[in-house]
Specification:
CATH topology of chain A: Rossmann fold
Distance between the termini of chain A: 43 Å
CATH architecture of chain A: 3-Layer(aba) Sandwich
Structural class of chain A: alpha/beta
Order of helices and strands of chain A: EHEHEHHEHHEHH
Radius of gyration of chain A: 17 Å
CATH superfamily of chain A: HUPs
Helix content of chain A: 25-40%
Number of helices of chain A: 8
Oligomer: homodimer
């Protein structure tokens, strides 16, 4: 069985990506970064998801991106609430964390190369997403190109591949796919601004996109159940 | 004055790079990564160098790359000693840390974007170096391309630039340049395998390359003075 590294945040998309990697016959090594995010509770969700779906190894790296700040997720900036589609589409939101996915994929690359693995899985999504530049296919292509000149393995001709199986799927289809693969979405956490007990706000972009997708499927979101 | 981010390891090359950034009129923000390196003593050298040359801000980030291992600098692998030119040139050495400069440049990019800066300085060198893939111009070009699709600033048309002023210089010329800019090399640390008191081994590739360059200049290496 071929190994791979899966970036696992603990959210809906990365949980589904882990299930896809398994479906595709990979033995997944999961990597979670505790980066000082406002919603640090997602790290515990990542641990639950990894245990539930099964991984070869789960690494949780600590990296304090609040030292840089510049995002509502890592700084004293308010998380936008109750935004409609138009507002969400208007601009890259303040929840964008500078170069976050570049840092995360770099760490996944380091992990993969150290373990002799060549396949990286990341749950980015360019359809029902939040306008983040580092969730687009052109970003993934540029990273793959970089990986192959940056590493010993790449120089020796063993290509790295970045898999983003959700990149072109609407959120509804991601959930449908995950359910068919046995993902338990009650274990996941997506909210950017949970309360002190870790409960989702149901009003940030991340909650709203997810709530609507479950609604479109005629289901209640098992992680965002009312009251 | 335009700001920039300088990756500062505490070694000879990064100290020189910081001096070049200042010479070129930049107000430098220094970034050091304490990554669990065998020669963690270099982090203190980075602090001395930053204080000596002057920076706007110096961030030291902690990131435990020993969780991945796979290098003589982050794992229980012996650092090669007493290698001649032929041995050094024969292959990428075990002191290569998987994807390290990709991770470091990604962090520099995150720092720069969070501070509204667009210029990154890195002291990589492709002449008297150790055969690392992530010290070559093609790596730097691929990273620059990535930076401009990965970030909000890039998408908005504000290009990032990766400066590697030493990339084509032999070590001797790097030292000559640094001396002309007032770099105090006694403050720097390059050795991969210092003893428990932080004293350089004088036998690893990094020590040997540096010792020879000073010798070629008819000088004693101020950081590697004989016992």
């Amino acid at each position: 069985m071929k190994g791979c590294v899966v970036l696992l945040s603990g959210g809906l998309d990365s949980a589904t990506t882990l299930a896809v990697a398994r479906r595709d016959g990979f033995a997944p090594h999961a990597l979670t970064v505790a980066y000082g995010q406002r919603h640090a509770v997602e790290v515990r969700a990542a641990e639950r998801v990894a245990a539930s779906l099964g991984v070869v190894e789960h690494k949780v790296l600590h990296l304090d991106l609040t030292a840089f700040g510049g995002s509502a997720l890592t700084d004293a900036i308010e998380v936008p609430k109750d935004r409609d589609d138009e507002a969400m589409a208007a601009e890259i939101p303040v929840t964008y964390v500078p170069a976050r996915n570049t840092v995360f994929l770099s760490l996944a690359l380091a992990y993969a190369e150290a373990r002799g693995l060549r396949d990286l899985f990341v749950g980015v999504n360019a359809v029902d997403y939040s306008g983040y530049p580092d969730c687009r296919p052109e970003f993934l292509e540029a990273f793959e190109r970089l990986a192959n000149v940056a590493t010993k393995a790449g120089v020796l001709g063993e290509s790295f591949r970045v898999h983003a199986p959700l990149v072109h799927l609407p959120k509804k289809e991601i959930i449908r796919l995950g359910l068919s693969l046995g993902v338990d979405y009650s274990l996941t956490h997506s909210c950017y601004d949970p309360d002190e007990r870790g409960r989702p706000c149901r009003r940030c972009d991340s909650c709203l996109i997810r709530l609507r997708a479950f609604e479109e499927l005629g289901m209640a979101d098992p992680a965002l159940a009312d009251g």
